[in-house]
Amino acid sequence: AFKAAVLIQQWYRRYMARLEMRRRCTWRIFQSIEYACEQDQIKLHNFFSYLMDQFTPSSSKERDFISRMFISGESYKEAELEKYCDYESIVVPDSYTGPRLSFPLLPDHATALLEAFKQKQQLHARYVLNLLHETRKHLKQLPNISHVSTCYSEEVTVCGDLHGQLDDLFLIFYKNGLPSPSKSYVFNGDFVDRGKQSLEILIILFTFLLIYPKEVHLNRGNHEDHMVNLRYGFTKEVMQKYTVHGKKILRMFQNVFCWLPLATLIDQKVLIIHGGISDTTDLDMLEKIQRDKFVSVLRMKKRKESSRKPELQAINGENKSETDAAGNEAAPRLPLQPQSGQAPSTANRLEFSRWLRQTVQEQIDTCRRLVDISESEPEELTYASMVSLKDVDEACWTRQEEWKQILDILWSDPMPQEGCRENKVRGGGCYFGPDVTEKFLEKYNLQFLIRSHECKHEGYEFCHNRKVLTIFSASNYYEIGSNRGAYVKLGPDLVPHFVQYQANKTAHMLTMTQRQGILVGLISRVEESAFRALREKLFAHTSALISAFKAYDRDNTGRITLSNWATAVESVLRLGLPWRMLRPQLVRSTEDGMLEYKSWLDDLAMEQRSQEHIQSSLLEVIYRNRSNLETIFRIIDRDHSGLISFEEFQQTWKLFSSHMNIDLTDDGINDLVRSIDFNKDGNIDFNEFLEAFRLVKQCP
């Protein structure tokens, strides 16, 4: 009996170890793909920032239009913003049955909102704008670093990322209680994006903030940024829920986000920031920064338009100096490659279309290489690498360092190695080691840091000798069952107490035995979802993979070793995954250890075609570029109507072609934009926009 028990125990341990290894591999896949997407977002914004810096408007009207299109509404003055978002002029119809707000807010208003959102009701646009107006007034009075004391409440509850998952917020309030004079909360940023109910979360949090201003504290996260919202869903969510007043609501949210405090300090001993720190993080500077200047942390204005030299050099064709007035290395100019004469006549649609596609593709590829949009380039261009704090004059240095201070605390991650280095995985912020943490805590006499920004399997995780605590409150973040959510409670002794949960309605009805019984199936489901996403990523890079495989197939046999397969895949995708370990899930086993890579890629294409019913060559390009192009579409679509006007497209084309040697007149551009408008409704929708980039083809 004893031997049998030992054998069962050994079997169980091996089995659980294998499950844990599968879980870790699955987790690594999800996280690598997520961070690669964030990196793409920053690269894409680098691309537009570079074009903006190099573009020379031909008139004041053109300059104003481009500024409105690509730069946030930070130029709105106080009176202009209030006039633009005038909530008093919006009439609430008698047929409206949702919650109603009156100011000053009372606890009953918060309770009514909670019940309404549980019933899937929507708050009227007038009340949303009124709430944002009052929230903005309150936030403007707050310091950059909020100070909280446990003397006034028994404990402080700290919550991490929620990412639009309203069920998690409901569960937190159910378990821990609603905010009150005796129940303080700190919500550590990333309230929005990814999930489908970001708007409701913000309304609830802002409501409690106004009711209990001393007990509810909100930090800014890296997703409280309108440029990030364009890609990850919040912009789209607002416009879908508020089709009439959505633009005003978005504008107010943008302004409210930039007024959110940057950090919270509990009892002068525990610092709460969203991302992390760097070896240059300075709390004294963070306290003095005019935080509302940074509407989007992704774009740093290196110099004001008025401080630039007149654009006569560009107009006269003179080359700019290699360095700007502040000593910064100038961004590389796009080479003006000679083209084959003038543009063909637009009367010959086929000839003109061929010439245009070839010219645009060549120049876009050149531009992509220069600003490193291409994923195949070995070095990533990041905002951290673009800014040199050593070689600029004092005034510009101060402005850029302020920006870097905010970038670091919103985007950085801890690492086990010592030192501080650029975070190339995310594309922004830095990695900071335990030595950086130790010096920072000692300098400011702190006990430990609380940060969020990273999904953790158990909802929380300690690192750096328990001096850095990551707390993440969005459960089921990647897939149902992928992770728990958690929040942490701190009393006067500042000892953290964790509460974990999983907001899954079906799981609440299961017994403990049933939950244990579905553990394996749950892991398999999450694993299947991860590998499906990974196969999509592989399929999206089919062309690059074929080139990489051929480099190892010198005899053109169509076969390579599995070891070379793993090396080639990593060289293309650059996800840092253990491909040899993942190989059994992606590649069929072979007796001789060789892989017929063409048939393997055909199998990937067949799997994706079965889902999309599109030819594989086109589908590959869509998978690889759709997210970037959808973000570009939303940038150009400044009124977020889902349609691009002819004027918006014309000005954008001028921006793209400003450094392309394309002699195309305004009439030529008008002919082009009309040819893209297939349904002749006077606007360009997303499918028509994809056609402009040769991603959607007309049926023969």
Mean pLDDT: 76
CATH topology of the largest domain: Purple Acid Phosphatase, chain A, domain 2
Work out the strand percent: 5-15%
User: How many domain modules?
Assistant: 3
Count of individual helical segments: 26
Coarse morphology? globular
Chart the SSEs and their pairings:
Blueprint: H1 2-54, H2 60-70, H3 78-84, H4 107-118, H5 125-140, E1 145-148, E2 156-159, H6 166-176, E3 184-187, H7 198-211, E4 216-218, H8 226-232, H9 234-241, H10 246-257, E5 263-266, E6 270-272, H11 283-288, H12 312-315, H13 349-371, H14 383-386, H15 394-411, E7 413-414, E8 420-422, E9 430-432, H16 434-444, E10 448-451, E11 460-463, E12 468-471, E13 485-490, E14 496-501, H17 512-517, H18 519-540, H19 542-552, E15 559-561, H20 562-573, H21 579-586, E16 594-596, H22 597-612, H23 616-636, E17 644-645, H24 646-656, H25 666-676, E18 683-684, H26 686-692
Parallel strand pairs: 1-5, 2-3, 3-4, 6-10, 7-9, 10-12
Antiparallel strand pairs: 2-13, 5-6, 8-9, 11-12, 13-14, 15-16, 17-18
Helix pairs in contact: 1-18, 2-24, 4-7, 5-7, 5-10, 9-10, 18-22, 18-23, 19-20, 24-25
